[in-house]
Design brief:
seven-stranded parallel beta sheet; globular; binds NADP nicotinamide-adenine-dinucleotide phosphate
């Protein structure tokens, strides 16, 4: 059996790194994208050591279309047949009200979460269609299901991920390809550190008093979705910590 190849954007941290470990443990070859080359190199060394897998680093900023085109075009021939694309790179900056926030920060969020995802889809899906093999797994969010205070732009980007995922599934209905949207609730990763502009204490506070999901928990779901039988297309998964009931309702104990 040929070894399958998974392409993961934003593999240097959190959910993306968790997916890299999960797919490596299950015999996949990995193409690892992100901007932080040092973190990606450390991850590649870890995966090759622990899982004896092959990993190919493709560092670029998904917001930069030319870098993305050049990166994908530079893949060696034996790395071009991607079986699974995990569009995971994403972020939020701040918790500002829509009429008060920083347009430059929001541009970063929109360009990464929406345009970056679309760029990678546009670059990799035609090859999947031509080969008649492929699964696109987008990392959306519970935030895409409804707005919450201070989250309007991030919520809008994740609602866009839902629309792009649903639209792609429709466009590919006459192919064997599958398209899925994984929508996590609260996951303890570097996400909140980025949201709070590097304030680790504020980030840690988000996860006090309950047990959040880990990147590995989400990766388990992503892998489950990817390994379902070929005739089974899991369109969406909404997963949350047990003590979370909606985007804004979390039962925290012992926290003032
Ligand atoms: N944590 C949560 O509670 C949560 C909940 C629902 C959904 N999500 C979604 O899950 C995804 C992963 O987030 P995470 O929680 O794992 O956060 P994280 O630990 O901060 O990881 C984000 C990843 O995205 C990469 N990234 C950011 N901007 C990029 C860019 N322009 N080009 C390429 N890579 C970029 C980062 O790598 P570099 O810095 O190396 O570029 C990093 O590897 C995001 O789409 C996020 O919206 C997270």
């Amino acid at each position: 059996m040929t070894t399958k190849t998974v392409f993961i954007t934003g593999a240097s941290s959190g959910i993306g790194a968790g997916c890299a470990r999960k797919f490596a443990a299950n015999g996949y070859r990995l193409i690892l994208n992100g901007r932080n080359v040092e973190k990606l190199t450390t991850l590649k060394e870890e995966l090759e050591r622990d899982f004896k897998c092959e990993a190919f680093l493709l560092p670029f900023d998904v917001r930069n279309r030319q870098e993305a085109v050049d990166g994908v075009n530079a893949l060696p021939e034996d790395w071009q047949a991607v079986d699974v694309l995990i569009n995971n790179a994403g972020l939020v900056i701040g918790l500002d009200k829509e009429h008060e926030g920083d347009l430059d920060e929001w541009e970063v969020v929109i360009d990464t979460n929406v345009k970056g995802l679309l760029t990678m889809t546009r670059l990799l899906v035609p090859g999947m269609v031509a080969r008649g093999v492929g699964h696109i797994i987008n990392i959306g969010s519970i935030a895409g299901d409804g707005a919450y205070p201070g989250g309007s732009v991030y919520c809008a980007t994740k609602a866009a991920v839902k629309a792009l995922t649903d639209g792609l599934r429709i466009d590919l209905v006459d192919t064997p390809l599958r398209v899925s949207n994984i929508k996590p609730g609260m996951v303890e990763t570097n996400f909140s550190v980025v949201r709070f502009r590097g304030d680790q204490v504020a980030a840690d506070r988000c996860y006090q008093g309950f047990q959040p999901l880990t990147g590995e928990d989400v990766a388990d779901t992503v892998y489950y979705v990817a390994s379902a039988p070929a005739h089974v297309q899991i369109a969406e998964v909404l997963l949350m910590p047990t003590q979370q009931a909606s985007a804004t309702i979390v039962h925290k104990t012992g926290v003032i």
